Amino acid sequence: MAGPSDSPRRKHKVTVVGSGNWGTTVAKLVAENTREHPDVFEEEVQMWVYEENVVVPSDSPHYDPAVGDAPQKLTSVINKYHENVKYLPKIKLPSNVIANPSLVDAVKDSSILIFNLPHEFIGNVCKQIKGHILPFARGISCIKGVTVTDDKVELICDYIGEILGIYCGALSGANIANEIANELWCETTIAYNTPPCDQRLTNGVNGAHGAGVPVRFPKTKLTPLPEDYPPLDHGEIHKLFDRPYFTVSMVSDVVGVSLAGALKNIVALACGFIEGHGWNATAKTAVMRRGMLETIRFAQEFFPESIQEMTFWESAGWSDMIVSCTSARNWRYSKMAVERGVSLQEIERTELNGQKLQGISTTKEVMSFLRARGREDHYPLFKAVEGIVDGTFEVKDIPMLFRK
Ligand SMILES: NC(=O)C1=CN([C@@H]2O[C@H](COP(=O)(O)OP(=O)(O)OC[C@H]3O[C@@H](n4cnc5c(N)ncnc54)[C@H](O)[C@@H]3O)[C@@H](O)[C@H]2O)C=CC1
Ligand SMILES: O=C(CO)COP(=O)(O)O
Questions:
Q1: Chain segment 67-80, per-residue pLDDT in tens
Q2: How far apart are CA 146 and CA 303, in angstroms?
Q3: 354 lines ligand 1 (CB under 6 A)
Q4: Most buried pick, 47, 52, 232, 362, via CB within 10 A?
Q5: Is the ipTM, as predicted for this complex, more than 0.95?
């Protein structure tokens, strides 16, 4: 009888769940890598698209006079022209990215699931795919946010892992999708821990950085990755994401990577408000420093068992804080809201063409969690951002928060 080592070697099939600005960019870079590593990955990358109708503008090279201004399915446009004309216009996607409007079909038979959509939609997506994925699939969440219920705050990757019964790591960094899509160099951080049940494939090799951090796995029993698949350890995950223009650091601290990515969106709103009010770099750096202190305080207070402060020196930490407070969407549009004297919610509705500002919901969720514990006054900057978003606090009063 044939043993496991005689079995034919299978390849990892990859699906990107989500196709916004970042989702499409990650699908592009991952598809470049599946092409370069045909021994490990199936070439075709499925990309789930939340289907909608789009009108291709007349100045687009993909404008078809026979179709004119008639609405077309976004998936058909992506598959025909290899461009996501709505969320990542003017970027050519590799032809092995396949847009799929069916969530269940897109994740079918995939052993690697990359979750990349605004965090408010992840619950519904997980509900729909539960029971339709390979039981031994492994996940990477590129989502910046947290999930909050009355009694707990959860990392998105833990939430995905618990609902689907799989292991899920986290990717986060100083990453502006349009820059990476244009292949302008940057770094990112991936936190992933090979589950013990998969380690017979990897000799326990997990990567050098982060040794000593208690490793977290879902409470549910994991199904081992079958032996005829290539192992999934730091080396293989690195192979899937690292590009000449996208330098990946592998770490083990899932908590630090996830919380830094989620909470910097609150600080980015504060920086936009500050700048919209007319203050400049010195005020912004004060807010960034205060924001980082509150981020680390939050991590230490609610995830004390696993946080590693070195993570804040990775791309997911200070670099993301800096880029988010100087050039990302949450900063840009909160500045615009103050300059125009309108609410941030209105700016999101009128200016973002379907893209989402994760800072708005993250601020509300984090503050409701803190308030339920009577801890809101220990996070004065986060509280001020909530007040500004709700119209109950004024930007000019931010410095008063920090006077002894
Ligand atoms: N855009 C960027 O530069 C970066 C974004 N991120 C993070 O990546 C995550 C995904 O963001 P983006 O790809 O930028 O999204 P986006 O903000 O560009 O696009 C919104 C997406 O949500 C989808 N959507 C709308 N309604 C939906 C529903 N009911 N159910 C499911 N999907 C729905 C839209 O189809 C679209 O794909 C976020 O957590 C964000 O913080 C992280 C790094 C960089
Ligand atoms: O996460 C990001 C930068 O690292 C992108 O942030 P925005 O969603 O504010 O554009």
A1: 999 999 999 999 99
A2: 13
A3: yes
A4: 47
A5: yes
